[in-house]
Amino acid sequence: MKKTTTDPKQSSDNCVVQKSQWNRLYSRGLKLAARGPRLSLQAISCGPPLSSVTWTRVCLCVCCESSHVSASVFRSLNSDVRLEDDGRCDVDVLDASSLSYQQFLERYAYSRPVVLRALTNNTNFRLLCSKWTLLQEYGGRTVRLSTANTYSYRKVDVSFQEYVDVFLKPQSTEVLGNDTLYFFGDNNMSEWQSLFQNYVSPPYVLPLTSAAYSFGIAGPGTGVPFHWHGPGFSEVIYGRKRWFLSPPDKEPHFHPNHTTLSWLRDIYPSLPEDEAPLDCTIRPGEVLYFPDRWWHATLNLDTSVFISTFLG
User: Fold this and answer.
1) What is the number of structural domains in the chain?
2) Is residue 53 part of a domain?
3) Computed from CA positions of residues 10, 13, 18, 21, in that sequence, does the dihedral angle turn out positive or negative?
């Protein structure tokens, strides 16, 4: 495999790959990287996405002379937290076909989280959530942003286009939660109804509850610190979302105004095993269920599009 040519004035962290090379290099590069330390893959923010069906802005740097494999996916500004690390998964992950609704109620609905694969088919909804499609349809609409702290006080209204252009960027560990604006929830249901009506929600609703949607888009390293509320499902449409969960009687050690990213760097590594929350990353095609009043914090490992179904 030939080494990609780059501008000698640029470092390897600022390489450029032509569109025509993208698919070939990306698929072959990932296969080679999986086989052993033959090349170094580095994904960095570098302008417009190469496909309208992806929200991740990446370049692929192929360094065949490297003796180590390195996959650095959108490291946050001023951060040594490696977002390519999915962490372990302490939550049961099941194919939905292996869990009946009655089994869901008996084993998980009121007692512990679970990740279900192939619970729904949202292929059409995913296409409607591509960056190009959403900006075409909703770019001029107003969205309400919330601060990313445990007790959100501040709300800011901006156009969806401005949110994507200005606010949708990697998170810095130096920024506090009340200074981080996050698009999740506070959706104008009438304006976004044409999109939401195409979403296939999880069929496993709890008795005597109704469902409410909360739709969001966020940059790498963003997330919400620990908080709790009623039960619900969360599905990733694009990207990866890492979840940390703790039962109602086991409040995690955290600061309500520090981001999940800084918590992951400063607190999580030193927690005793018996104090550590459950940890699991979900990807497109997977749905996480969390029971009532479970503490949870989230961290978007990529630019992510996601939707939650709250039951109440």
Assistant:
1) 2
2) yes
3) positive
